[in-house]
Amino acid sequence: MKIWVDADACPGVIKDILYRAAERVRVQLTLVANRLLRPPKSEYVTAIVVPAGFDVADSRIVQELQPGDLVITADIPLAAEVLEKGGHALNPRGELYTKDNIDERLSIRDFMDSLRSTGVVTGGPSALSQSDRRQFANSLDTFLNRHMQA
Question: Nearest-CA neighbor of 69 among 81, 57, 54?
Fold first, then answer.
């Protein structure tokens, strides 16, 4: 199992949690972004820089993904592709996307997108709170404990 990170929009505090987890459980963590990243030096952490462009990082992750891999992303369409390919997807607030909840998340995303296209100001997500960070760390630990022993 590998962990892939949709790194362009992933908050730094979430990346820090992921770096520590990769070292602790000795799992390969790969950040994919369209800009240069400076992850810590580690045999478990790598970064891939892809060309700028719409969904280029997402496409690279899906291309490289193997069944059972985990992807960290807030991008719901990417999460849906990951699930279709047999992977797992966790958002930076600690919600695990599943086959049971992804259709609802996609519907809400599409609805909000259609509202924005008509000029309705919907606002963005709230700032990542300390509670969100804890939830992410707990969800990640639960996932790793369950899947690293399998």
Answer: 81
CB 43, CB 60: distance < 8 Å: no
Neighbour-count burial of 91, counting CB atoms closer than 10 A to its CB (0-12 exposed, 13-18 middle, 19+ buried) = buried
**Per-residue pLDDT at 99:** 87
Instruction: Write phi, then psi, for 92 (nearest 5 degrees).
Output: -65, -5
Checking if the pLDDT of 106 tops 80, the result is no
* 30: CB partners within 8 A, 6+ apart: 2, 3, 4, 5, 45, 46, 47, 48, 64
pLDDT score recorded for residue 89: 97
Q: What is the pTM of this model?
A: 0.86
